[in-house]
Amino acid sequence: MAGFRAYFDFNLYNGESTIELSEEESNHLCGSLRAKQNDNVDAFDLQGNIFKCKITVANKKHTQLEITEKIPPQPKDTNVYLLQCLPKGKTFDDIIRQCVEIGAAGIYPIMSQFSQVKLDERDAIKKTNKWTSQIIEAIKQSSNFSGFEIFQPKTFNATLDQLQNFDLKIVASLEDNAKPLAQIFKDQPSGPKKIAILIGPEGDMSKDEYNLASEKGFIPATLGKNVLKSETAALTAVAQCLVCADFIR
């Protein structure tokens, strides 16, 4: 879509013909990007809604947009969710950006046994808010408006307990019984619509965590002969899942 892009929480939309951006979004659009009156703007949220708009008031603190067209969310044929055991440093920031760019549906951050990142509830909320801002910036950069979910970080066990409604659950594994992803998809009786792919942290997951994943229905998958870093494994796994899902559909 042509023009500028700006985030707007459509939960705040009251049905009027104009919307007002937050001060942060206004400053980014009309300050950093120097958008002006009558410029086109695609206003989006994280649920896949898009409003095509024109700027009626170009102000760094309260930009107003006139809605010219509403585009409802377009359902995806396949939704791939990354279950990422939290890595150290800024690695997770890169994983978020890459997942948005290639079309993942969302991320479950996990505090696993060997994760170096451990968060209490207050810090988990702060981190989730920070990650949401990064998702918004990634959507602006990539123009991938299809929607993206970020969940609050939880423990390994608590995360796996949330996944009852997934059609296919996969864990990246170096174990001998791990199958290529293409084979796993080929073995499915029908094309899975909602897929979870679990990636361990630096140092991998513990034996107990692998056992629990198996008990919860996760199928071990190999991502190739080489041992990949956490961020490389995440991008490879999500991309392969999307390709395989498209191929068998």
Provide the fold topology.
Layout: E1 4-7, E2 18-20, H1 23-32, E3 40-44, E4 50-57, E5 64-71, E6 79-85, H2 91-102, E7 106-111, H3 121-142, E8 149-150, E9 154-155, H4 156-160, E10 168-172, E11 179-180, H5 181-186, E12 194-199, H6 207-215, E13 219-222, H7 230-248
Parallel strand pairs: 1-3, 6-7, 6-12, 7-8, 7-9, 10-12, 10-13, 11-13
Antiparallel strand pairs: 2-5, 3-4, 4-5
Helix pairs in contact: 2-3, 2-7
Structural overview:
There is one protein chain. With 249 residues, the protein is an alpha/beta fold. The protein has helices at 23-32, 91-102, 121-142, 156-160, 181-186, 207-215, 230-248; strands spanning 4-7, 18-20, 40-44, 50-57, 64-71, 79-85, 106-111, 149-150, 154-155, 168-172, 179-180, 194-199, 219-222. The strands form two sheets. Strands 6, 7, 8, 9, 10, 11, 12 and 13 form an eight-stranded parallel sheet that branches. Helix 2 crosses helix 3 and helix 2 runs parallel beside helix 7. The chain starts with a strand and ends with a helix. 37% of the residues are buried. The mean pLDDT is 92.
